[in-house]
Amino acid sequence: MTSKALQSFLTDNINDLKERGLYNEIDPIEGANGPLVKLDGKTKINLSSNNYLGLATDDRLKETAKAAVDSHGVGAGAVRTINGTMDLHLELEEKLAEFKGTDAVISYQSGFNCNMAAISAVMDKNDAILSDELNHASIIDGCRLSRAKIIRYNHSDMDDLRAKAKETVESGDYNKVMIITDGVFSMDGDIAKLPEIVEIAEEFDVITYVDDAHGSGVLGKGAGTVKHFGLQNKVDFQMGTLSKAIGVIGGYVAGKTELIDWLKVRSRPFLFSTAVSPADAAASTKAVDLLIESTDLNDKLWKNSNYLKNGLKKLGFDIGNSETPITPCIIGDEKATQKFSKRLYEEGVYAKSIVFPTVPRGKGRVRNMPTAAHTKDMLDDALDAYEKIGKELGLI
Ligand code: PMP
């Protein structure tokens, strides 16, 4: 029997979310998450996935995953530190270290638990973390879990960061201080000001942590935001995910050997949660191999992304400060944004609306994620739909 307290908690809160239009209904995809997706039995142009390079449906990765199932089975069988570390996990970590140009890498089951794990393995209640106000939820949760003092700085505001770093360090109240930022911000597609962040970190001798979930495979010819700025060896933690450009699942930190050794003995999901499956590890290694061998997919991603961005701008849409494939089309009003996305869907384009509380009130947007796998025809069709609905709703 459900307790009355739980029952009323659930009913009250779900009804409240529904009344405020914030209850997120999930649309299941029938089949693969490629440039086209099937929903409700109908094929749509997919501008909603993080499958930047189209690798989630790549035949080479599929073959590699199938072979790994045959040779290693479907599950790792244990946590990494008991007997769940397979040769395939080590190969993945070595390949990622080569890709990132760091001494070593530790991998986790997801990007989300990687942030939870790595931040809390190093920072504690005697420390302070300077965190960009737009950082991802997994960073926020990782910071909270560490029990360090969290000091938010205004988004990409380097004067604010410098002042807060100075005050925090000079207070003498903390053992360690860290600056943590997304490399690419997931709602606006803007890039963190890493050269200034590294300069501030060096000036005040603080730790640097970059979550490059949306930069890896995208910036720096694929190697990520740190490489994009030529700052290799200047950032302590290069965190990444295997679920976006790499097309599979998992997360990792690339860094110096001693840091990775520490994470292997102190990060709890590594110690207490079963390792990713052999198929996932092998497919991820194959993806990284492909990115080391050639920049073709990365070039295609940028070509498509520039094409869509220019098309939207020419039509008169506001794409904000986007500098990467993440292309918001800022509508503003929440209801108008939802209506826009719904009409796009009816016209065959699947691009999700993102509204408060994920973005500030009045900054509702439809977020477009072009990938290397889209064809020019698909992007043209999407732009036609944008033009039609933009005019219909009086937005352009
Ligand atoms: N960091 C950022 C910036 C992200 O956007 C995401 C994914 N939404 C994550 C971390 C978590 O990665 P994953 O989906 O692999 O758990």
Automatic annotation (TrEMBL):
- Extent of the signal sequence: none
Provide the GO MF annotations for this entry: pyridoxal phosphate binding; transferase activity
Which cofactors does this protein require?
A: pyridoxal 5'-phosphate
- InterPro entries, alphabetized: Aminotrans_II_pyridoxalP_BS, Aminotransferase_I/II_large, AON_synthase_class-II, AONS_Archaea/Firmicutes, PyrdxlP-dep_Trfase, PyrdxlP-dep_Trfase_major, PyrdxlP-dep_Trfase_small
The record's keywords, sorted A to Z, are: Pyridoxal phosphate, Transferase
* Record SUPFAM superfamilies: PLP-dependent transferases
Q: Which residues form the Aminotransferase class I/classII large domain?
A: 43-385
Asked whether the keyword DNA-binding is assigned, the reply is no
Question: PROSITE patterns of this UniProt entry?
Answer: AA_TRANSFER_CLASS_2 (PS00599)
One of the Pfam families matching this protein, by short name: Aminotran_1_2
What does the annotation say about its assembly with partners?
A: Homodimer.
Family, as annotated: Belongs to the class-II pyridoxal-phosphate-dependent aminotransferase family.
PANTHER family listed in its UniProt record: CLASS II AMINOTRANSFERASE/8-AMINO-7-OXONONANOATE SYNTHASE, LD36009P
The protein here is known as: Glycine C-acetyltransferase
Q: Which organism is it from?
A: Lentibacillus persicus
Question: Species lineage, top-down?
Answer: Bacteria, Bacillati, Bacillota, Bacilli, Bacillales
